[in-house]
Amino acid sequence: MILFKAYDDATSTWPTLMDQEPLVLVDARDFEIQAIIDKVDNAAPLNKTELELLRMIKAQDPDCLVYKSHARAGGENYLFYEKGFNKLALREVRLSLNGGRNRNSVACAVSSDYLPVLEAYGCYFSPIARIGKDLTYPESSEYRMRKQYMELSFSQYREHEHEQD
After folding, report:
1. Fewest CB atoms within 10 A around its CB: which of 51, 97, 143, 153?
2. H helix or E strand, kind and range, residue 105
3. What is the pLDDT of residue 132?
4. Alpha carbon of 163 to those of 122, 151, 152, 157, 158: distances in Å?
5. Sign, Cα dihedral of 61, 64, 66, 69
6. Residue 118 in contact with residue 150, Cβ under 8 Å?
7. DSSP state, 55?
């Protein structure tokens, strides 16, 4: 099992992404979205009401759709579309294999302020849940972009602190 813990980069203390648009979530927990998903998975036709609901959701241009979970009573599923997924920053990635006998995690943000650990984005899981590092990641355009925006966040924070003195 692989578990991703993520957060909205735009509202974090230390954003690292250029896209600072707020996340647009459509709360569809009171609608039968899972039934529609099941129909689509089984190639069953959708009725007019279901099609209209999907049109209304699409018109919102959401980043994420929230709906009730079939697997866990009272649980929720968050279905992120690509544009919403790209607005997220990773907090942690966990891997668990062989019933939890082989497991490991990579922390991509630490502390209650979610301080980014940019180098962790270059980590990967190798066999038996070992952690490897892409040594070229710090030279990548993604790393440089994230570092640039994080440093901008730090400088804005320092300026704000000096204004308070």
Report:
1. 51
2. strand 102-107
3. 97
4. 36, 18, 17, 10, 9
5. positive
6. yes
7. H
Place of tokens 């991703």: 4
Please name the residue that has the structure tokens 């009725």. 47
- Of 22, 25, 155, whose CA–CA distance to 80 is shortest? 25
Task: Assess contact for 90 and 81: CB atoms under 8 A.
Answer: no
Length of the chain: 165
5 closest CA partner among 90, 119, 103: 90
Q: pLDDT at position 165, please?
A: 66
For the range 156-164, what are the long-range contacts, defined as Cβ-Cβ under 8 Å and sequence gap of 24 or more? 157/13
- Percent share of the chain, pLDDT over 70: 99
In the chain, domain spans: 2-20+87-164, 25-84
Contact 147, 118 (CB under 8 A): yes
SS3 115: strand
Q: Residue holding tokens 């790393």? A: 143
Record the pTM. Answer: 0.77
Three-class DSSP category at 32: coil
User: How far apart, in whole angstroms, are the C-alpha atoms of residue 36 and residue 55?
Assistant: 13
